[in-house]
Specification:
It is built from twelve helices and six strands. By secondary structure, the chain is an alpha/beta fold. It has two domains: 235 residues, Rossmann fold; 61 residues, Histone, subunit A (Orthogonal Bundle), CATH 1.10.20.140.
């Protein structure tokens, strides 16, 4: 067996509910492919599945890492490979779901063969960014690696750090490594579903969900996260809503200002995700409307045919 089901889409598009419905129908295990839902500190703010859903259907790679660790596509891929193989061994169908395009692409297409970067160099890169700031860091990178710098924005701390650490570790630009053919880590045969909701519905979902998060524990989650005194450059500190809720906690924004700023950031992120999936994802099925039970007869039939087809 090497078949998997992939459910991709923007934040607040309904991926998690659909994944549970598919897993229920086809004896599946839901495997997370969201770069923020891997962290244990932010269940509410990252919209991780409810505990009752995790008990109802096996869920894997949710809240498995400490925010002190910077996850990457390579790290996630190794964890996902193990969970997929475990699901197959149990005669379950892996249902991969998330909004992190690079994670899904690395699973389906393979990953550029970039050598592993040591923790010491990774730490040096983060500390340098913290000490000198984005503009100075960007200038230093541009002097050493103009090609990668030209691809990145000065405010994109995480990708700037990644470009710097790869250059320091390997002596070659990240652009060089990315130009090499992707290397498959696991042999999979995917059935890919892309949830492409109408923009007005998606944006409304983003807006409503953040208000619900804010009023039902997200502020307390961020307080707890801040108490860990983590580096501002770690991925978990850049989760949607952390910056805005931190401003609220510190008295720099009112409740309404924080909510509106986070809603805007979420909508922009959802737009970028949708654009990426439209251009980069080869989907077997595109869904714009989800049925009340989250699994239409058409979707059921197509998945059933895929799973029962010999190939």
């Amino acid at each position: 067996m090497n078949k998997i089901i992939v459910i991709a889409g923007a934040t607040a598009s309904g991926k998690s509910s659909l994944a549970v419905a598919v897993a229920e129908k086809f004896y599946g295990t839901v495997v997370n492919a969201d770069s923020m839902q891997v962290y244990k500190e932010l269940r509410l703010l990252t919209a991780r599945p409810l505990e009752k859903e995790e008990k109802q259907i096996p869920h894997r790679l949710y809240g498995v890492l400490s925010g002190e660790k910077a996850c990457s596509a390579g790290i996630w891929l190794e964890m996902a490979k193990n969970e997929i193989k475990t699901a197959w061994a149990e005669n379950r169908i892996p249902v991969i779901t998330g909004g992190t395009g690079l994670y899904i692409s690395s699973l389906v297409k393979g990953l550029s063969p970039i050598p592993e970067v040591s923790q010491s160099i990774r730490k040096q890169a983060r500390e340098l960014m913290e000490n000198v700031g984005n503009e100075s860091f960007y200038s230093s990178l541009a002097a050493k690696d103009p090609e990668m710098a030209s691809r990145l924005h000065v405010s994109d701390s995480q990708r700037l750090i990644r470009a710097w650490e790869v250059l320091e570790s390997t002596g070659k630009s990240l652009a060089y490594w990315q130009s090499l053919p992707p290397k498959p880590v696991i042999d999979v045969n995917p059935f890919v579903i892309f949830i492409n909701r109408p923009r007005e519905i998606l944006y409304e979902n983003c807006n409503n969900r953040f208000v619900e998060m804010f009023d039902n524990g997200a502020v307390e989650e961020v307080r707890s996260l801040l108490s860990l005194n983590l580096s501002a450059e770690l991925p978990v500190m850049k989760a949607l809503g952390v910056k805005e809720i931190t401003a609220f906690i510190n008295g720099n924004k009112t409740r309404q200002e924080a909510i509106e700023a986070a809603q805007q950031a979420t909508r922009r992120y959802a737009k970028r995700q949708t654009t990426w999936f439209k251009h980069q994802l080869e989907a077997n099925m595109i869904v714009s409307k989800l049925d009340k039970d989250r699994l239409s007869s058409e979707m059921f039939s197509k998945i059933h045919l895929f799973l029962n087809k010999n190939c």
